[in-house]
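Thread: Newbie trying to understand structure tokens

Hi all, I'm a second-year student working on a class project, and my supervisor (Dr. K.) asked me to get a predicted structure for one chain before our next meeting. I've only ever worked with sequences, so writing a 3D structure as a token string is new to me. If someone could post the tokens and maybe explain what I'm looking at, I'd be very grateful. Here's the chain:
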Amino acid sequence: MIHIFFDLDDTCMDTTGILGGSLMNLAKIRPFKGLVRILKRQDCINYLVSCGAAHIQRKKIKLLKIANYFRSVRICLEASDKLILFMAIAKDVCPKERRRIVVVGNRIDVEIRYGNLLGFHTVHIQHGKYANLRPRCKDEVPNYVIGEISDLGRILDRIGRY
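---
Reply by user tm_fold:
Sure, no problem. This is what the structure looks like when written as tokens:
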């Protein structure tokens, strides 16, 4: 099995383009095209690790209708807490399957960095306000870069062959 740690904002949906820092258009959010197909893969176990106010993040998840595709949903207030959440989830993954943990996120300074520090596969989705961040160190260099979440399928196929 492949274990995928997904970020929410600008990874599963267009937060920057639709919300733009405001909650006025919250009802207009939709999952990225191809996301549900990825989440339905039978060879994957999905986890959602998001940062922000819990009540707002849970409302987004409810509006997107994606909660049932995740084994667990973890929400933290500070981006730096994602490292702790990644470690907590990973300790429950069978040691033999830890080489098939994938972190997917739009921030190289958070999801990609923490995934690399833990030795996971990292996939940077270049979308939203952090799309143009450049790596400041080797830990911020992703294993894979995609423009759309639908491109994740081919990467998962490759990782699944390991």
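A couple of things are worth pointing out once you decode it. The chain has a mean pLDDT of 95. DSSP finds six helices and six strands in the chain. Feel free to ask follow-ups in this thread.
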